[in-house]
Amino acid sequence: MIITVTGAAGQIGYALLFRIASGAMFGPDIPVSLRLLELPQALDAAEGVAMELDDCAFPLLGDIEITDDADVAFEGANVALLVGSRPRTAGMERGDLLAANGAIFAPQGRAINDNAADDVRVLVVGNPANTNALIASANAPDVPSARFSAMTRLDHNRALAQLSGATGAPVSAISRVTIWGNHSATQYPDLSNARIEGERFEIDRTWVEQDFIPTVAGRGAAIIAARGVSSAASAASAAVDHLRDWVLGTPVGDWTSAAIVSDGSYGVAAGLVSSFPVTSDGGDWQIVEGLEIDEFSRGRIDASVAELAEERAAVEALGLL
Ligand code: NAX
User: Where does the Lactate/malate dehydrogenase N-terminal domain lie (predicted)?
Assistant: First the structure.
């Protein structure tokens, strides 16, 4: 399996690469070769990470290639984790942020289109993740759009952890939690269908609305406030979970959350990369259909999807789609 990681010398890269190389992503029987894409000024740092990967003597790890050339990095890739992006800096308007990331994700989409393996699966982690995935997919016309996804698994895992903390149920007993919409403060972490030990349970709506939702949606900012830097190990762990479930399949009776290209389900405009409840049987992600959406959920989903539509309009105006 050839796995390309962009932003490999960054903090998520540092937490992610060792998990991949140890077999945590695809299990103990699948050897992995790594392709690390970095900016020219970070190639030395990426080289240092590769030296440490060598020093782990992971039995599954094949060759490691380090490059600043996207065509080289995506050559033959079966899995591409697009982590490197342009973060928002002080005074940056959203339009500037989207333009700066368009300059990264449009060429990377083209490089995936031209070089990746036929079965490539792409996970965009770098923010704004949903719209970056939209840009990459739009620039890869020969790759089915179902192969592009953006990460809301960290939000999903945060929701599991918060519900576990509030109820005392272990995370392993919790199922059917959903993140809808954008990986941003507007996301909607939804417990309407959640189960504990397979059973519906009484849920305090005031806690959901005033505590659970703001805690999950604001967790990234809380981590920055506490650590001084953004979530890294938990983001890497979520990326491992996302790819493992996509390639090996989700557990029977449960689903996970991933941002994928909408087919119009649940009133989410077709073509937007929005988070949904999804399952996989090892092929493409499938949206879980037929869930009842109450008025509160409808409003929250619509608000986050409206933000995605605004982002799409902005990148369309920039000629990035
Ligand atoms: P870092 O700044 O530590 O690392 C980013 C790395 O990407 C740097 O080494 C940089 O040289 C590299 N890079 C930048 N542009 C590149 C390009 N065009 N090609 C290749 N490499 C490039 O950031 P880190 O903490 O690792 O976070 C990476 C991204 O993940 C950020 O956009 C961050 O906002 C996003 N996150 C997304 C999350 C999610 O749930 N979807 C959660 C965690 C994180 O906030």
Answer: 3-141
